[in-house]
Design brief:
Blueprint (H helix, E strand, L loop, with lengths): L3 H10 L4 H35 L1 H15 L6 H18 L3 H20 L10 H4 L1 H28 L1
Helix pairs in contact: 2-3, 2-5, 3-4, 4-5, 4-7
Length: about 160
Amino acid sequence: TPPADYVEGLKELKPTGIVPVAVTFFGICVLVPFAEEIVFRGLVQRIFSRNMGPVLAMFLAGAFFGVIHLTPQLLLSMIVFGIFLGYLFMATSNLVYPILAHALLNTFSYIQLLVLPEDQLASVPPYARDPWALALAVLIVAYSGIRIKKAGHGLAKNA
C-alpha cells in the first residue's frame, strides 16, 4: 500500500479544467522530459562515460535518474527506465530519442492520472497487472533496443 502522502500528492497533481490540463500536460510531457534528458543523458551520462566508460555510465546515470524521482513505489521501474533511456542515448549519440521515449512514458502516465478515479491513482498501472502484458512489453523494448542500436551504428557510418 502506497503512503498516504504519495496518494495525496497525486491527487493534488490532477488538474481540473481545460487550461490547467493543457498547462500541466505541457510541463509534465514536454518540459520535464526535455530538461531531465539534458541533465541525465546530456550531462551526467556524458561525464560518467568520459570517466568510467559508456556502459557503466549508462547504468549509473539510470540509477541516479531512478533515485532522484523520490518515489519508493516506482524506484525499480524508474531505474530500469533510466537505464533504457541511457541505452537509447548510448546507441544513437542523440538526445532526441531519449527525450521522445521519456515524453511518451510521461504522456501515458499523465493520461492515467486524468482518467483514473482518485481512489485508484496510486494503484499498479493496468499494463503491469498482467504478467503476459509485462513480458510482451519487455520483448518489445528489447527488440526496439536492438533495432535502435543497429540504426545508431548506421548513423555513425554515414556521419
